[in-house]
Design a protein that fits this description.
The chain is of the alpha/beta class. Helix content is 26%, strand content 28%. It contains ten helices and 16 strands.
């Protein structure tokens, strides 16, 4: 089977298509013929060597975490699926496995039936970004109509899920995005939208209860200027060193720096599936064919788009 892999850390040029043996499944696993997989920022963070402490340096490495497809085989202890089921899911170890291949073998506990009302591309967009959004809301604590929340980089894949889920709590949402993301931010539930190409959020001098920096460009140090005395800064793209440092520094301030580490699972996915059934909008900005994998990753890493980027395998 074909798979996208790389044999050294680097930019998109290190990516290549290789031939490898179709995986054998364990009793608790399912074999999925992949129809689509989505691109997430963690893909290039790992590929560039920014996550070596967690990913290791053993090659070749694969890319991609969440996928959708059709079950081709099931393990002897699996009774929740059958061959031919349309599903979506995520690999067990995002740091060391990949979904960018024609087939993946994964535990049945990390696969869910694809809703009929969404495409394979949309389904492949759910697990990583959707779980991160649900996890972020958990970290926010009690949210109500008086809670002021700033979402920086609000129309990314993560932001797409987050804005829509947060609106259910009635929170006062301010979204920071580009000019072309304004209408999406409004559609997804933002009460106020700030175009970062025209305005500097730090100059507004409005203070927030919660700030979440999805773009990774604001940073805790700058965000403190517009945080209320008792508030939370959520960081979904931490450097490894920031994880222990944030815990230590939080002992001495009421402006908390909280790292988001999420792991897809059934509890989170059920929340997302319920939202999909209620009409959650999943915007797939662009779909690339498997053969254009390098172009797809270049496009994704450049940023500036709304929603998710997906690669399809025919």
């Amino acid at each position: 089977m074909r798979a996208i892999a790389y044999k050294d850390f680097g930019n998109t040029a290190v990516l290549q298509i290789i031939e490898q043996t179709k995986p054998m499944i364990q009793p608790e696993q399912v074999l999925v013929r992949v129809k689509a997989f989505s691109i997430n920022p963690m893909d290039w963070k790992i590929r560039k060597g920014e996550m070596k402490l967690m990913s290791g340096s053993k090659f070749p490495k694969h890319t991609g975490a969440d996928f959708s497809g059709i079950i081709e085989d099931i393990g002897s202890s699996v009774n929740s699926f059958k061959i031919g089921d349309e599903v979506f899911g995520v690999v067990k170890n995002i740091m060391k496995e990949g979904a960018s291949s024609e087939y993946v073998a994964v535990p049945s506990s990390l696969v869910w039936k694809k809703p009929e009302n969404i495409s394979f591309a949309q389904a492949a967009s759910i697990p990583v970004a959707g779980t991160a959004a649900v996890t972020a809301i958990e970290k926010m604590g009690k949210i109500n109509s008086k809670t002021s929340i700033l979402v920086n980089g609000a129309t990314s894949g993560f932001g797409m899920f987050l804005l829509q889920l947060l609106k259910e709590y009635g929170a006062n949402l301010t979204a920071v995005t580009s000019t072309k993301g304004i209408e999406y931010a409004k559609k997804w539930g933002a009460d106020t939208v700030i175009d970062y190409t025209k305005e500097n959020i730090l100059l507004h001098r409005t203070a927030y209860d919660i700030i979440i920096d999805l773009s990774g460009k604001l940073g805790y140090k700058s965000a403190k200027e517009i945080m209320k005395p008792k508030s939370i800064f959520l960081n979904p793209t931490p450097r490894p060193i920031e994880i222990p440092l944030s815990i230590l520094k939080n002992l001495f301030t009421d402006k908390k720096h909280t790292v988001i580490l999420s792991s897809p699972g059934t509890a989170y996915t059920n929340i997302l599936l319920d939202a999909v059934n209620k009409g959650l909008d999943i915007e797939v900005n662009k779909v690339f064919p498997f053969s254009q994998y390098e172009e797809a990753y270049r496009y994704a890493e450049k940023g500036g788009y709304t929603g998710k980027i997906v690669i399809e395998i025919n």
